[in-house]
């Protein structure tokens, strides 16, 4: 059986890192975007990453960050993967010598096949809902039928996922992975262990129906 990978994003507390790891998350995301309520400093992220066991990846989320800011973060935080969530060009994404993925907000008219070709140097695409006022963490879903079936197995699906809809998302889209933040929170930046566990069970349920 193909297993859908899970990234839990927006971690700010040691207890939430431990809960996500215990639930079986494959990757944890740390937000380096000061306007976000889930933002952490490099110092905070370094302390959180120190709690990660082997084979759980640390992902750093950046939004149109100055290159020197990204490099300063990398000097302090042992990130395995960079996630670029703004309007970054492919050359920028590739300039830091780390594996990276490009997040695409599913605004009207976006051509996923063209964007996939444009960002072919990355490890994959993360697809999120579009909100003109926010770069991510909208809590909204987009129309999953907009994802071409031929690329679905290589994308990470985000946007409004929670324990109530993730099984359907996994079954219908068949993505490589799913990404959740607000859908497992008690408050912004504060994760809830029961919701994390329920989300992970939803992913497993979806996998059995793929």
TrEMBL record:
It comes from the Bacteria. Residues 6-201 form the N-(5'phosphoribosyl) anthranilate isomerase (PRAI) domain. Pfam families: PRAI (PF00697). It catalyses: N-(5-phospho-beta-D-ribosyl)anthranilate = 1-(2-carboxyphenylamino)-1-deoxy-D-ribulose 5-phosphate. CDD domains: PRAI (cd00405). Coiled coil: none annotated. Keywords: Amino-acid biosynthesis, Aromatic amino acid biosynthesis, Isomerase, Tryptophan biosynthesis. One of its GO terms (molecular function) is phosphoribosylanthranilate isomerase activity. It is an enzyme of class 5 (isomerase). GO terms for biological process: L-tryptophan biosynthetic process. Its EC number is 5.3.1.24. Pathway: Amino-acid biosynthesis; L-tryptophan biosynthesis; L-tryptophan from chorismate: step 3/5. The keyword Ubl conjugation does not apply. Belongs to the TrpF family. This is N-(5'-phosphoribosyl)anthranilate isomerase. The lineage of its organism: Bacteria, Pseudomonadati, Pseudomonadota, Gammaproteobacteria, Chromatiales.
